[in-house]
Design brief:
single chain; Serine Threonine Protein Phosphatase 5, Tetratricopeptide repeat; Neuraminidase; Immunoglobulin-like; 4 domains; 5-stranded antiparallel β-sheet; 32 strands
Amino acid sequence: MKLLIAVVSFLVSSGMLHAQNTSAISNRTNTLYSEALSLSQLGNSLKATQLLHEILEIDSTYYMAHFALADLSHEAGKAEEELAYLTKGLALSNDLYPAGFKFLAELLYKKGEYDGALERMEHFALLKKSLNPDEQLLLASCRFSVEAVKHPVAFQPTDPGDSINTSAEEYWPSLNAEANELVFTRLETRDKNGLKITRPQEDFYLSRHDSIGWRKAVPLGYPVNTDENEGAQTLSADGRLLIFTGCGRSDGIGSCDLYISINKNGNWTVPVNMGEPVNSGAWDSQPCLSADGETLMFVSSRKGGLGKMDIWKAEKMAVSPDGIPLFGNVTNVSELNTPGNDMSPFLHADGKTLYFASDGRPGLGGTDLFFARKMNGKCNEPANLGFQINTNSNEEGMVVEISGEKAWFTSDHDPSRGRDILFFILPGSLRPDPVSYLKGEIADAKSGRKLRAEIVLSNLLTDKIVCKIAEHENDGTFLVCLPSGQNYGLSISRKGYLFSSENIPLLKGFTKDRPKELNIRLQPILPGASTTLKNIFFETNSWMLLSESRVQLDEMARFMKLNPSVSMEVVGHTDNVGTESYNLALSQKRAGAVVSELKKRSVEQYRITGKGVGFSVPVGDNSTEEGKSANRRTEFIVKEVGKM
């Protein structure tokens, strides 16, 4: 037992067990105390408590009895009684038992009485002089909490309504990028007739948001929901993938494993164990899939960590023929982890802001919510989200919408209902960078039939791929998230078709208008088929290609290599600013510059030609800036098709 054994050990070793004014303490009280100690160690708490009260009736200053009663109260979960006995014992013992002040500080800290906790913890530190790591953390937490309460952050949680929250417990929210689908866990304790069930059941529920609001949540149903418990899930940005935790299953590797299911045409597939190295022989849970689908973060108790529960990450290595992403290269996210428990990671769609829960850092009690930002590939020092978001209870499992404004979390704000899902507006200093998204549909330009295709989103400034969706990872629809501050190029390609490209300029940020939606129509590779090269850029009034064109040029060269029987023509167009002869010459030189770059990329000279047509073939109104911009374009046209 925590207090009693520690007290006896301390007083025996210091020779002070019977140093309490022995002339006033009869042999009877010492005998009773020894008997109470023996009974408590044998587990007879009731009789031990009776004897300790008998001692205090004889001598109310017998502080050992107060400490022993505090310990028995602790074992019984009676925190208020424990606090009262401990306070009285310390008042009588005149600093003879320094650890008692630490125990009292712990009690007050857990109650949220931070000033009192700090006073006792600082007194303990003064008496002990050298603190172990756990004691240092408690002292730091008390100091942090006192200051945090003086400077509360704005926090006004809102209940989304009874379409989501019920008399059952709802927790662990997860959202798609559009924030119009919410998947969460519900703990059912009653059957359809309202009768209490012997084995509470965890299942997933889905609520959709439209112009009316959040619709009544419905079960995800079989095969995701089963007679076993499912929980701690993450939803992919496009709502297509669900990764969750399943425990004690027949195909399990450890006590709890991560599973994945795919939504195909509105139906969820049979969940598949994600296998090693994501899962281990230990406890693996609480997944978070990054918005680009390239990184999976999760929590594990496996060997090699820094604490009890650590945050780990895995990288997408490949995609199975069934469209299931395969993850490997599992590493410990050491910048976040502590010797304690670090849990519920959430990587925002900006790709650099992380939210997580921890009890291994100075906080307000239990697990607190923290955030950190990645700079140059490394996370900076995590910061506590502050009081009132954090309290002396456990806070964890927070997710943030891609706008960065609204956060969702679980709370037991109404004890009569249990846990519910709430949301609040994040203070500005705690927000990630805003993110928009682009969604689209891909179809055959001739038949209108929906097509699967490879989708690649690239950063045109760095030439790096931001997101890649394999052909068998989509059903002809897609959604990609777009952090602001970059210029993006989107490429859609499929065998037998001309590729399509889009330019998404977000270097200066974006407005809060509804994100862009595209209807991509791929042209079959036939003579005369054409595509506009939306990521070919020239200096103003020049045929010098800008560096942002490299991604598109590489894509053109790759297309030519994959289609060796095809001959193409590059056609340059201008707006009507300037003379006809000037624009004709400019467009010819621009087409020639593109052809020259393709030849440098090993495209055979006989397969690629270029010409300029000036402003003779407009597609927009040259009297408007938007129309002029559309007219300044470069096209890629199929000239001849040999045997494919």
